[in-house]
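> example.struct
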């Protein structure tokens, strides 16, 4: 991987970013790797030496590493806590692994730390966060394979809300996190649901690798994996820059226009949903055929 430094970030910060001790151990794929789109994972492995990343885009990783290190150190010496232990199991011929941040053995709680935004926490508390739910249930399954005599009853995400503000709490009220740290309970699946999900994800990645070896074709990322916004229909009024209404279907937009007193001055603009991940957060977009085809 190549690093650029267009914003002249100080050298000690760059060294800290390069000093990441993360490893997937002896596994073929990790829990987080299973959750990634096969196309992104495979292209990353193939083009690792050619990927260019600016260090400014990696700063949040440094904050995450710092928080994890401090919390890991806080748990040292406590026999009732398992900290940062990488656990392994074999599924479909592949060794998979996962490293949980903290497991409280006596309380039977599996915990994972996330440094994230208050907006993400608000959304997760309101609607749930599928990726967190999947990740922690994989960890729970791995724990059971490695510690069959022990039990986990609760899964928690512990968030450090990096942009939390007391003033924002006073302005926003109800949905805003009440503190800089939030505890989010994650639904715990049955053992059968966990195992079936893991088998399915392993199979998806194995099939993608096999197809790529034969045909150099990769399964396209889904709209959800692209973080694609919904298509919208914007009702515009002549002489006005902003939309009067933004609606999800052509029919709804036409209905709004036909019922408006100033119908003759209105028009409908279609806005295709933007693939957020592809346009700014995918490390292999430049090597992705799907991205280039959809961009045209």
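> example.seq
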């Amino acid at each position: 991987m190549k690093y650029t430094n267009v914003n002249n970030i100080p050298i000690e910060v760059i060294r800290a970013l390069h000093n990441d001790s993360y490893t997937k151990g002896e596994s073929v794929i990790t829990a987080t790797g299973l959750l990634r789109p096969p196309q992104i994972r495979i292209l990353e492995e193939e083009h690792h030496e050619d990927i260019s990343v600016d260090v400014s885009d990696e700063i949040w990783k440094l904050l995450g590493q710092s928080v994890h290190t401090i919390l890991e150190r806080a748990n040292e010496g406590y026999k009732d806590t398992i900290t940062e232990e990488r656990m392994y199991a074999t599924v479909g011929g592949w060794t998979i692994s996962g490293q949980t941040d903290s497991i409280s053995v006596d309380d039977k709680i599996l915990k994972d730390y996330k440094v994230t935004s208050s907006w993400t926490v608000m959304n997760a508390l309101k609607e749930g966060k599928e990726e967190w739910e999947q990740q922690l249930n994989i960890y729970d399954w791995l724990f059971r394979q490695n510690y069959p005599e022990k039990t986990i009853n609760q899964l928690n995400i512990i968030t450090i809300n990096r942009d939390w503000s007391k003033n924002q709490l006073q302005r926003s009220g109800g949905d805003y996190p009440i503190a800089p740290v939030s505890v989010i309970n994650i639904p715990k699946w049955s053992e059968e649901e966990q195992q079936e999900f893991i088998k399915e994800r392993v199979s998806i990645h194995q099939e993608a690798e096999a197809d790529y070896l034969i045909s150099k074709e990769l399964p396209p990322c889904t709209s959800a994996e692209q973080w694609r916004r919904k298509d919208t229909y914007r009702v515009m009024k002549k002489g006005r820059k902003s939309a009067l209404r933004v609606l999800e279907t052509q029919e709804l937009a036409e209905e709004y226009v036909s019922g408006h007193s100033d119908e003759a001055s209105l028009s409908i603009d279609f806005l295709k949903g933007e693939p957020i991940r592809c346009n700014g957060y995918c490390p292999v977009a430049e090597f992705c055929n799907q991205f280039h085809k959809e961009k045209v």
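> remarks
The two ends are 27 Å apart (CA to CA).
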